[in-house]
Amino acid sequence: MADSAKPTARLPFSGGRPPHLPCGPGDVAENVLVPGDPDRVALLHDMLTDVQDFGRKREFALVTGTFEGRRLTICSSGIGGPSTEIALVELAMLGAKRVIRIGGCSALVPEIPTGDYIVPHKATGMTGVAALYAEHGHTPVADPALASALEASAAAMGLGAHRGMIASTDSYYLGQDRPIRLQAAGSPDAEYLDRFLAEGAIGVEMESQVVLAVGQAIGLRAACLLGVHGNRATDDWLVDYENTQRNLLRIAGQALAMDACN
Ligand SMILES: O=P(O)(O)O[C@H]1O[C@H](CO)[C@@H](O)[C@H]1O
Ligand SMILES: O=c1cc[nH]c(=O)[nH]1
C-alpha cells in the first residue's frame, strides 16, 4: 500500500513517500529512535556515522545512519499524541520494526532524581489517541524484551534506570497541575498528578501511552526510555539536560544490540 504511485485521499502516499515524514522507500532503518523535539535529531546525529539527512517537514526531522555497526533512523515525533501516531504509522509503513521513544518526563515520586532514567513497562493516562486505540488496552505495554534490554543497557553503563508505569497526557499545563496564569504561580491545584500516582504511575509526560498503544495495534515492537527532566515531588528541574539526552541515544543504541528478540 505504502508504495502505490498515486496518492488517494484514503492513503495519500505519493510514489511511496508518506504525506508527513520527509523521506521515502528505503530511507528508514528497521531500528528507529523517536525523540519529541526535532532539534534533538540535529543534536544526536553527530553520534552516528554515514549519516543521510532527509531534512524536516513540520515537526518531523529524520536522519538515517549507523550506530555501532547497526543501521539506525532517528525521527522526531513532535509534542503529543496526534503527531506521534502519524510518525509511528508512517515509520512502520516505511519498514520500521523496532521503535524506541527517547524523551523527557518528570518523576512523580521523590526517590527518582532528575538525571536518572525511566523505562516504562506500561503506560496509563488520558491521551486522545490512546483512547482511540483502546481496544488494544487502556494501559498498553512495552515490548517486554526491548524494555528489558533498555534496563540492562542502562545498568551496564552504570546509569540509574527505574522500571515502572508512566502516565501520558495531552496537556503540559493544566493536565500536569501547572499554573495556567502567572498570577497563580504559587498555588497550583494538584489533581491530575494525584490521580496518576494513585494508579501507580512513577512519571508523567505526553507520548508514551500513544507509542505503546499504536505499537501494539500495528505490530511494531515499541518501548520508551525517558530522561528524568524534572521531579514533581521535590520540584527539582534539570537545567543542563544535554548529557542526559545524549545518554538516551547511547542506552537505546546498546539496547538494540542486546535485545534478545533481535
Ligand atoms: O522530551 P520530549 O520527547 O519532547 O517529551 C516531553 O517534553 C515535551 C514537553 O515539554 C513533551 O513532548 C513531553 O512528553
Ligand atoms: O514535566 C514534564 C517534563 C517533560 N515532559 C512533560 O510532559 N512534563
TrEMBL record:
InterPro entries listed in its UniProt record: Nucleoside_phosphorylase_d, Nucleoside_phosphorylase_sf
Q: Please give the Pfam families that the UniProt record associates with this protein.
A: PNP_UDP_1
SUPFAM superfamilies from the UniProt entry: Purine and uridine phosphorylases
Q: Where is this region: Disordered?
A: 1-24
- Annotated Nucleoside phosphorylase domain ranges read 32-235
Which spans are transmembrane here? Answer: none
Q: What EC numbers are recorded for this enzyme? A: 2.4.2.3
Q: Which reaction does it catalyse?
A: uridine + phosphate = alpha-D-ribose 1-phosphate + uracil
Q: What class of enzyme is it?
A: transferase
Source domain of life? Bacteria
The record's annotation in PANTHER family points to: FI09636P-RELATED, URIDINE PHOSPHORYLASE
Spell out the protein name for this chain: Uridine phosphorylase
Q: Which organism is it from?
A: Nitratireductor kimnyeongensis
